[in-house]
UniProtKB/TrEMBL annotation:
Keyword Hydrolase listed: yes
Family label: Belongs to the glycosyl hydrolase 43 family.
The organism of origin for this protein: Streptomyces alanosinicus
Name the UniProt record assigns to this protein: Ricin B lectin domain-containing protein
Entry GO MF terms: hydrolase activity, hydrolyzing O-glycosyl compounds
CDD domains in the cross-refs: GH43_CtGH43-like
Pfam families, A to Z: Glyco_hydro_43, RicinB_lectin_2
Tagged with keyword Amino-acid biosynthesis: no
Transmembrane portions of the chain: none
Listed PANTHER family: GLYCOSYL HYDROLASE 43 FAMILY MEMBER (PTHR22925), GLYCOSYL HYDROLASE FAMILY PROTEIN 43 (PTHR22925:SF3)
Length: 320
């Protein structure tokens, strides 16, 4: 949804289907005088090229021109369309930067004169590697896609990037969907993942993990916070602590029992999962306790691994 300051209308674009499959793949538009008011349906349609429109986002540039960014041709292509002056229809196709690349869930924002396009792969409900590209013009040239975040975007899929503007400047907040279906639940069990985006250079972007995110809307700051509380997990029979061996931060590092210390490799945070389960997140690495290879065999090693949505990273804590 975007606001048209010329017409005074809030304009909502949607992905329309028949409720059964993706055979329609149409865009739809509705408008309202107020953001929370009654919306007037303006119809559904496909882009003027006749191709499809699925996952989409809207972007309003500094000059007031609005664009729809949508995946087409069965998610093979990403199309950037300029919209009409009233934002309710298509004007022209501006770019098709990565034909045949098969991505979805686009988010577009502009920072310091550089456009950033963030997308996900196509793996249904299951999270995957998010990638981004940059350009100084929406028409391109655009860079090749580069990885950002970990291999699953910390168990999420790109939904939007929200600029937070204030007295100290503008920060950028990543909003990701952690789909309930990827965690053994339903779509109603889905969660949001909010994380700060950081920018090492004008044209590069990082998506680091933090247990908590602090947002100051007055100052315009988005800051990662080392959350808590953290716990030591002590074996009753030995009095020793659950320990990531050698305080390693590497994927696949072994998790053992070891005499208790003050090391952060023995400190764990319980992160809620559906159905009364928890993931255990190591403080020193931000990675999760993981049953290696999702094995169900007795004696399988425990390791640390980037947090995902697999049930081999989900544990209960029943009373004994």
């Amino acid at each position: 949804m975007i606001y048209n300051s010329t017409t005074g209308k809030f304009v909502m674009w949607m992905h329309k289907e028949n409720g059964t499959d993706y055979s329609q793949s149409r865009a739809a538009v509705a408008v309202s005088d107020t953001v929370d008011g009654d919306y007037t349906w303006r119809g559904s349609f496909r882009p003027p090229s006749g191709t499809t429109s699925r996952d989409m986002t809207l972007f309003k540039d500094d000059d007031g021109t609005a664009y729809q960014i949508t995946f087409a041709a069965g998610n093979a292509d990403l199309h950037v369309y300029k919209l009409t002056a009233d934002y309710t229809g298509y004007d022209t196709l501006v770019a098709n930067p990565w034909p045949g690349n098969y991505r979805e869930s686009p988010a577009l924002f502009k920072r310091d004169g550089v456009y950033f396009m963030l997308t996900s792969g196509t793996s249904g409900w299951n999270p995957n590697q998010q990638k981004y590209a940059t350009a100084t013009s929406l028409a391109g040239p655009w860079t090749a896609m580069a990885d950002v975040g970990d291999a699953t975007a910390y168990g999420s899929q790109t939904a939007f990037v929200l600029p937070v503007q204030g007295t100290a400047g503008t920060s950028y907040l990543y909003l990701g969907d952690r789909w309930g279906n990827s965690m053994g639940g339903t779509v109603n069990d889905s969660q949001y993942v909010w994380l700060p985006l950081t920018f090492p250079t004008r044209t590069t972007m990082n998506l680091p993990w933090y247990p908590q995110t602090a947002i100051d809307t007055a100052a315009g700051t988005v800051t990662g916070v080392d959350g808590g509380p953290y716990y030591s997990l002590i074996a009753q029979h030995s009095g020793k602590c659950l320990d990531v061996a050698n305080a390693s931060t590497a994927d696949g590092a072994y998790v053992n029992q070891y005499h208790c210390t003050t090391g952060t490799n023995q400190q764990w945070r319980f992160q809620d999962r559906p159905g009364g389960y928890y993931s255990l997140v190591a403080r020193h690495s931000g990675k999760c306790l993981d049953v290696a290879n999702a094995s169900t065999a007795d004696g399988t090693r425990l390791i640390q691994w980037p947090c995902g949505t697999g049930t081999n990273q989900q544990f209960q804590r029943p009373a004994v």
